[in-house]
Amino acid sequence: MIADEPKERGCTLSIEGLFQYNLVPTNEISQRVSRLQHRLQEGTVDGVLILDPVNMYYYTGTMQQGVVFVPTEGDPVFLVRRSFERAQLETPLKRVIPLKGFSQLQATLSDFGLRANILGVAEATLSVAVFKMLIKAFPRGTFTDISTLLGMVRAVKSDYEVGLIRKAGALHGRVYDAIPAMISERMTEWELGAEIHRKTMALGYTGITRFAVSGMEMFLGIVSFGESSNYPTASIGPGGQVGLSPAFPLVGGMKKLGRGEPIFVDTGFGYEGYFTDKTRVFSLGALPAAAMEAHKMCLEIQEAVRYRLKPGAIPSQIYEEVYDEFVHSRGFAKHFMGFGSNQVSFLGHGIGLTIDEFPVIAGKVHTPLEANMVIAVEPKKGLEGIGLVGVENTFRVTAEGGERLTPGPDKVTIV
């Protein structure tokens, strides 16, 4: 039974004899809804239908099966298919009702006096099958894509969210501090990945790496030895990996560790839903001079980006300035940000409830940065016959430039 149903949603929900966990504060949910409604009032929609789990959690504080309708003005309506009981326990929203089927959506919203003629939906996360059901449920409705708008609202983190990301970063640091002791000659990538995963889980890692719109799967991250980190991959990042088989090209494969080759470790750490992203390079014995020089250049590029992560800065200008000053002018472009076909055209990406959030530090992103955006910066360089070197850290946008949320040394750690 529930010991005490929480009145203030910033507290801990306790189930006697079973477990306890923290709830999202009421004022946090209220502010998120208000920010979204403010943006909606700039357009023509009557409201938005939210169905994907990540945005549902963001606007309700719970992750259930159902639909959230956020009107342009007024209280949201949360229609829950499963679990209605859990939704009642975890969300501070006032209008929470059971959902038997999509056919009741329009009538239910009408009963609350809410218009639903022009509806925003996140097409990026909406399957065709579900979209067909929405069309049937709102036969006279018009739908418009608000994926970008939802991403931009989530991009600016509250102090509450930054606190959770900061905690994730601190725990992430403890994971990387423990990696040197895990490394031994002739161990496989998979074995090192398993040890890293064990450590992350022991520290409270939530066990899944979420992506917003890429459809990408990831388990833990990338653990690659030597040229494995240059192996072709479908990943949206610059790091290569082999994996256990074509059906599971994730984490790492059966390559055994030799001396003097880069150990490339790129992982996320999730704490209460919020992620940090981090990459470090280790080595059993000294790396070739070319690898050390390339890594040093990546650190300079990271600092150049970090310095520019200020409110008002334009991501495309950051990208172009850094490329002109450090990449093109110094002949560093070949295999920079990924070896061969793994090369990607960005220097950093937003991060929060998912790994791939807005904004992206890339050539076509012109929306100015805002304070409390959180961005993972990851300059990396592929070297033929050696592997991938470089770094990744998670930063908060501030007036002084990026504040690092992932502590720990950036240098190559020689074991």
Structural features, described:
The protein folds into two domains: 12-153, 3-Layer(aba) Sandwich (Creatine Amidinohydrolase, Chain A, domain 1); 156-414, Creatine Amidinohydrolase (Alpha-Beta Complex), CATH 3.90.230. It is α+β, with helices and mostly antiparallel strands and 415 residues long. Strand 12 (346-350) and strand 13 (357-362) form a beta hairpin. It has a six-stranded mixed sheet with strand order 6-5-4-3-7-8. The chain has ten helices and 19 strands.
Question: Topology of this structure?
Answer:
Layout: E1 12-15, E2 19-22, H1 26-40, E3 47-50, H2 53-60, E4 65-71, E5 77-82, H3 84-90, E6 95-98, H4 105-111, E7 118-121, H5 128-137, E8 142-145, H6 147-155, H7 159-182, H8 189-202, E9 221-225, E10 262-271, E11 274-283, H9 289-308, H10 315-328, E12 346-350, E13 357-362, E14 374-377, E15 380-383, E16 387-390, E17 393-396, E18 403-404, E19 413-414
Short précis:
The protein has 415 residues and is α+β, with helices and mostly antiparallel strands. The protein has helices spanning 26-40, 53-60, 84-90, 105-111, 128-137, 147-155, 159-182, 189-202, 289-308, 315-328; strands at residues 12-15, 19-22, 47-50, 65-71, 77-82, 95-98, 118-121, 142-145, 221-225, 262-271, 274-283, 346-350, 357-362, 374-377, 380-383, 387-390, 393-396, 403-404, 413-414.
**Class inferred from helices and paired strands:** alpha+beta
Query: Structurally, how many domains make up the residues?
Result: 2
In spatial order, strands of the major sheet run: 6-5-4-3-7-8
Q: What's the overall geometry? A: globular
At CATH level 3, the topology of the largest domain is: Creatine Amidinohydrolase
Q: Helix and strand succession?
A: EEHEHEEHEHEHEHHHEEEHHEEEEEEEE
The CATH class label of the largest domain is Alpha Beta
How much helix is in the residues? 25-40%
Total strands: 19
Distance between the termini: 51 Å
Tell me the β content: 15-25%
- Taking Cα atoms only, what radius of gyration do you get, to the nearest Å? 23 Å
- Characterize the largest beta sheet: strand count, sense, and whether it forms a barrel: 6 strands, mixed
CATH homologous superfamily heading of the largest domain:
Creatinase/methionine aminopeptidase superfamily
Number of helices: 10
